[in-house]
Design brief:
- The protein is α/β, with parallel strands linked by helices.
- The protein has one domain: Tetrapyrrole methylase, N-terminal domain (Cobalt-precorrin-4 Transmethylase, domain 1, 3-Layer(aba) Sandwich), CATH 3.40.1010.10.
- Helix content is about 50%, strand content about 15%.
- It has a 7-stranded mixed sheet with strand order 1-9-6-2-5-3-4, with helices on both faces.
- It is globular and about 65 Å long.
Length: about 260
Amino acid sequence: MFQNKTFRKIWKGFWEPVLGLGIFQWIIAVLFAIPIWVVYFTSIKKIDNIDVFYKYRKKPAIFVFWHGRSMMLSPIICLGRMNAYAVASSHKDGRMMAKLQRLFGLRAIYGSSSKGGVSVLREGLRVLARGNYAICMSPDGPGGPSLRVQDGALYFAKMSGAPIIPVCYSASRAWVQNRWDKYMVALPFSKIVCNIGQPVFVPRKASDEEFEKIRKNLEDFMVKQQIDLDAMFGVKGIEQDRCAMEFKQKKRELEIQKKLAKKAK
């Protein structure tokens, strides 16, 4: 046990500074981008309500998607020539993912609902005010709770007048990772179905009750959107309210229990 901890500490101490370097983040981003394109070009694609995407791809809009369903949206954004910024975590992992998104044409706004929220809102409103850019964001990111719409996207919509457009995808061949967000990795030679929902507007003078009603309706729609898409391919695993930190902690505790059980035998 002590040796394992020591090894992990040394390994972490070596890789954390390395992964924080911009050049290595770009290398990793390229290595991630290549398989995404391979999956996209070897798969059959179907996009529902594509007219909504074309209508708003170069206009002020807030495209929202669950944190675990972002992978195959990137090529669609790129090939659709969408003008957009993506909200990304300021953590080094978030910066690396922002570089990956940049390869697909998305610029970054750094921050989250917990850190840098005010600056993200301010910068996002500037982007929307330009009149020819959209914003892409995960309302349950970067750390959960999963499949819960937080207020950020609705504040963007309320203060800018731009619509919220919910997007989701599912795939016939996929690896659903054992993570808090059950991240879906689509595999080559899949059938990929993407659904684009109708625009949702938040009135500038919406009361707290109206605001919450719109938020809840949006959340319910996005959950059903994923359930309906997954049902096409027999994918199961809708789990709300899972948080990244708690999930990692429980996973560590379970690993320790398994190791102790082995030793007891």
